[in-house]
């Protein structure tokens, strides 16, 4: 039997891995410049954590979570998103008692049982950032500024969409108005949205089925129902974004697919794919809902594979030195390779036998810039022969002197 990856899971290597690492390193550098600290949380959590945070009436919980029982019969889940685990850690370790606010980021694999398609896998990777303890709209603007900076640094074309979905004060009135509207277009909704319109009508606005998108095109807008505090907050966010020179588009249909969001929500949408590649928003009630103290919070997550598929990695090729032992000189070749690495050079030691010509051909195949020939004469004389694979020039270099 020839084993292959499980459907929806994938290996990352070669050029794909270069793009992946480039994306994560750039984002990490940007987050460091904003003084975010890293946190690593488990990939396995109690399933109830996601049911209570993400929401029971969401596709993630109803259809997409990998859920299993452990030997004690406890229901566990592979994490489908990162925020819930970070909030759980924030509460469990009483981080709120350490200082007025925290800025944390995470990186790692997430798991959702979705239909595999281009750029979407059942195991995928995210980098996310969370801010706890800050209610001021300037924090919303700064989080969106980070997203804008990431897009520019990676040279990824995307536009930023924003909306406000209100709070516990004003959302109930909007919910009732939306439910009444959806009853009038009920026959045009998909089967899932027939259920959502009663239990969680905002999710209908997030449906990707074309008939549903068309049916809600004239639905009431949540911004028309905002209370005074939410409206003032939203206006300040827009003012701050404008003062920072960040282009954005208001999207009154934007609600995000998770239940914990309040007030500001946003997405960076790729015109190439039409998908959100970075998304987030404010979740001022989630910490309290999961058993912590009342704590305003907000954050965002980057879909690493989605962003990496749109990125071109700058060509910064590092010269490779290929050390070729020729004769019974393996000990000397090891010393030479070590000395070159001590100089900070990228080195590969040949483990192949064969003629010098075959070794040089192999050096070409692996993209070596220099072939370092180590033979009996070199060992006796305490030197190496360095051949430039591009020009064909070669020279002797005595060991102990920089190549």
Structural summary, described in words:
This protein is elongated. The chain has 2 domains: 14-170 and 226-308, 2-Layer Sandwich (BirA Bifunctional Protein, domain 2); 320-398, Rossmann fold (3-Layer(aba) Sandwich), CATH 3.40.50. It has helices at residues 14-33, 47-53, 59-64, 83-92, 137-154, 171-184, 191-199, 210-215, 228-243, 286-289, 304-308, 330-342, 356-365, 376-381, and strands at residues 37-38, 44-46, 67-69, 75-78, 102-111, 123-132, 159-164, 249-250, 262-269, 276-282, 297-303, 320-326, 346-349, 370-375, 383-388, 394-398. By secondary structure, it is of the alpha+beta class. α1 runs antiparallel to α5 and α5 (137-154) packs parallel to α9. An 8-stranded mixed β-sheet has the order 1-5-6-11-10-9-7-8. The protein has a 5-stranded mixed β-sheet with strand order 13-12-14-15-16, with helices on both faces. 36% of the residues lie in helices and 22% in strands. It contains 14 helices and 16 strands.
Average pLDDT figure: 89
Strand-residue proportion: 15-25%
Approximate shape: elongated
CATH topology name of the largest domain: BirA Bifunctional Protein, domain 2
The DSSP helix count reads: 14
CATH architecture of the largest domain: 2-Layer Sandwich
Largest sheet: 8 strands, mixed
What is the spatial order of strands in the main beta sheet?
A: 1-5-6-11-10-9-7-8
Helix-strand string? HEEHHEEHEEHEHHHHEEEHEHEHEHEHEE
Q: Alpha-carbon distance between the termini?
A: 49 Å
């Amino acid at each position: 039997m020839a084993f292959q990856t499980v459907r929806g899971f994938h290996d990352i290597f070669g050029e794909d891995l270069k793009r992946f690492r480039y994306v994560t390193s750039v984002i990490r550098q940007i987050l460091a410049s904003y003084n975010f600290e890293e946190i690593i949380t488990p990939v396995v959590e109690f399933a109830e954590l996601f049911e209570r945070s993400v929401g029971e009436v969401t596709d993630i919980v109803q259809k997409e979570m990998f859920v299993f029982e452990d030997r004690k019969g406890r229901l566990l889940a592979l994490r489908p998103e990162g925020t819930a685990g970070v909030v759980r850690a924030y509460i469990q370790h009483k981080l709120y008692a350490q200082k007025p606010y925290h800025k944390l980021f995470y990186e790692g694999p997430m798991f959702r049982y979705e239909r595999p398609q281009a750029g979407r896998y059942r195991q995928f990777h995210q980098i996310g950032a969370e801010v706890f303890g800050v209610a001021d709209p300037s924090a919303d603007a700064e989080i969106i500024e980070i997203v804008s900076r990431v897009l520019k640094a990676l040279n990824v074309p995307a536009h930023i969409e924003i909306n406000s979905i209100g709070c516990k004060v004003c959302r109930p009135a909007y919910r009732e108005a939306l439910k009444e509207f959806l009853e009038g277009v009920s026959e045009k909704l998909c089967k899932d949205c027939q259920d959502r319109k009663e239990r969680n009508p905002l999710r209908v606005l997030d449906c990707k089925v074309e008939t549903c998108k068309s049916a809600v095109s004239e639905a009431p807008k949540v911004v028309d129902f905002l209370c005074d505090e939410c409206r003032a907050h939203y206006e300040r966010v827009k003012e701050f974004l404008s003062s920072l020179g960040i282009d954005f588009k208001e999207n009154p249909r934007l609600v995000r697919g998770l239940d914990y969001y309040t007030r500001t929500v946003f997405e960076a949408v790729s015109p190439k794919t039409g998908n959100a590649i970075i998304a987030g928003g404010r979740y001022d009630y989630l910490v309290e809902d999961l058993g912590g103290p009342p704590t305003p919070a907000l954050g965002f997550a980057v879909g690493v594979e989605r962003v990496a598929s749109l990125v071109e990695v700058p060509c910064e090729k590092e010269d490779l030195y290929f050390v070729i032992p020729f004769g019974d000189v393996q000990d000397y070749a090891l010393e030479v390779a070590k000395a070159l690495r001590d100089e900070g050079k990228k080195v590969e030691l040949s483990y192949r036998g064969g003629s010098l010509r075959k070794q040089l051909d192999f050096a070409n195949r692996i993209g070596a810039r220099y072939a370092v020939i180590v033979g009996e004469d070199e060992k006796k004389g305490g030197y190496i022969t360095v051949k430039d694979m591009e020009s064909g020039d070669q020279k002797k270099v005595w060991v102990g002197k920089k190549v």
